[in-house]
Amino acid sequence: MALEVDATGARAMSSYPALKYSMGFSVNGEPIPDCSEFSGKESDLDTMGERDATGYLHRKKVATKFPLKLKYNNIPVEVADDICKKLRSDKFQFTWYSLYHGGLYTMDAYVGDRDFEATWWPEGGTYLVNLSFSVIEY
Hints:
The structure is a single chain. The chain is mainly β. It has a domain at 24-43 and 63-138. Helices cover 7% and strands 55% of the residues. The chain has one helix spanning 77-86; strands spanning 3-5, 11-13, 26-27, 30-31, 37-40, 43-51, 57-65, 68-76, 92-98, 103-120, 128-137. The strands form 3 sheets. A 7-stranded antiparallel β-sheet has the order 4-3-9-10-11-8-5. Strand 9 and strand 10 form a beta hairpin. It is elongated, with a radius of gyration of 19 Å. The two termini are 37 Å apart.
């Protein structure tokens, strides 16, 4: 089975529903499909934090970062492979829709753990996989 592109630019496997690209995810400017699940958090990074005798916290905040988690359910292995290839470099630009920034936000990032499992493997055909990974801001 080969990837096919429809009139809207959505790619699909010939016997698989069309993938959507409406969430704005991209790696180095190359779009990746919308995921099944998406979560993130805002993390403050400190170089120092301690409380004084009154319990007041003295901290030195140096940055706010946004680690993300994307999960794809039952996607063709070719699509999962394409996504993984885009994430292989040590550092890349990752674009996502950020509630914190009120729109698309591009950050320097690297990929954390990648988990995958085959969910359906027909004889002589393309199998489907679940793929999840973390994207961590530099």
